[in-house]
């Protein structure tokens, strides 16, 4: 196993991490922005008002995209484990 293989594996893992976490992060970011604009317009500054919608949105995204996220991670782990014999010389 040379340094190029290590860097390629690390790059692939980082790309997978970004791809799997992006739906949740983008959804929570958009919901937080909408709630912040609502709070600024109405001048209601309640901490739970920003927390609860983000939590509900994250749960909904997990319910919708969870199977895809899980299958993507399982495929990556399966490929990584199956490549172990080729890495050991």
TrEMBL record:
<protein>
    <recommendedName>
        <fullName>Flagellar biosynthetic protein FliQ</fullName>
    </recommendedName>
</protein>
<comment type="function">
    <text>Role in flagellar biosynthesis.</text>
</comment>
<dbReference type="Pfam" id="PF01313">
    <property type="entry name" value="Bac_export_3"/>
</dbReference>
<keyword id="KW-0812">Transmembrane</keyword>
<feature type="transmembrane region" description="Helical">
    <location>
        <begin position="15"/>
        <end position="39"/>
    </location>
</feature>
<keyword id="KW-1133">Transmembrane helix</keyword>
<comment type="similarity">
    <text>Belongs to the FliQ/MopD/SpaQ family.</text>
</comment>
<keyword id="KW-0472">Membrane</keyword>
<dbReference type="InterPro" id="IPR002191">
    <property type="entry name" value="Bac_export_3"/>
</dbReference>
<dbReference type="InterPro" id="IPR006305">
    <property type="entry name" value="FliQ"/>
</dbReference>
<keyword id="KW-0966">Cell projection</keyword>
<keyword id="KW-1003">Cell membrane</keyword>
<feature type="transmembrane region" description="Helical">
    <location>
        <begin position="51"/>
        <end position="70"/>
    </location>
</feature>
<keyword id="KW-0975">Bacterial flagellum</keyword>
<keyword id="KW-0969">Cilium</keyword>
<keyword id="KW-0282">Flagellum</keyword>
């Amino acid at each position: 196993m040379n340094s190029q293989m290590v860097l390629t594996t690390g790059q692939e893992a980082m790309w997978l991490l970004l791809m799997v976490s992006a739906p949740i992060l983008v959804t929570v970011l958009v919901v937080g922005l909408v709630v912040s604009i609502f709070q600024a317009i109405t001048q209601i500054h309640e901490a739970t008002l920003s927390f609860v919608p983000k939590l509900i949105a994250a749960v909904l995204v997990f319910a919708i995209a969870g199977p895809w996220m899980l299958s993507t991670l399982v495929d990556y782990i399966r490929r990584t484990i199956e490549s172990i014999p080729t890495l050991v010389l």
